[in-house]
Design brief:
Structural class: mainly alpha
Shape: elongated
Number of strands: 0
Order of helices and strands: HHHHHHHHHHH
Helix content: 55-70%
Distance between the termini: 38 Å
Number of domains: 2
Radius of gyration: 16 Å
Length: 191
Amino acid sequence: MYERGCSDADGEFVVSKDTSMALKYFEEAAEKDHLKALLHLSALLTTLDPPYFRPEQARQLLHRAADRYSSPDAFNLLGQLYEHGLGLPAPDLEQAGTWYKKAAREGHSGGLFNLAVWYESGNEGEDGRKRAAPLMAEPGCIKCRMIRLAANFDVRRGRQMPLTESMAVCSSESLRHPNHEARVFQLSKEL
C-alpha cells in the first residue's frame, strides 16, 4: 500500500498526484505500522491544506513510530510539531527539546540542527546557548544548515521545499559523521 501512495520514478519519494488516493494508501499502510508510511503520512498531514491538514493525527502517528521503532525521524518531527504547537493549544518548547535531544542522540542530522537552533534560541538559558555553537559545527548540522539555506532561498524565489523533501535530505546516510557510531556515543554523553 505504501508504494501505491508514492511514485518512485527516480528512486525518490514523490507523492502521487491524486492526494486523496495517496493519503488513502498511506493510511492503509500506517494502520499496519509501516514506518515510512507513518512518517510520510504525518509529514503530509502537517503540510497539506485543509481538509487534509490534520496535525493531531500526525502527532499520534509520530508517537507510534517513535514508540514502536525508536525512529530518529519521528523524534525530530515530533520536536518540530511541539516547537511550533501544531495540533496543540500552544507550543511546548520543553517537549520539543526532549524530542530533539532524542533525535540528536541517534545521530539524526536534522534533529542535531534543530536542537542547536533550539539551544541558540535561549532554551535552557545561557548553558543552552553555550551548547549551540559546538553542535552547529558538527558535519551533519552544517550540511542541514546548507540545505535549509537553499530551501529559504527557493522560498524567496517562489518555490518551497516540501517538509518531506527536507526530512528525507536531512536524515539521509550521506549526512552522517564519518565516524558516526563513536560520535553519536560522544554526543549522547554531552546531551
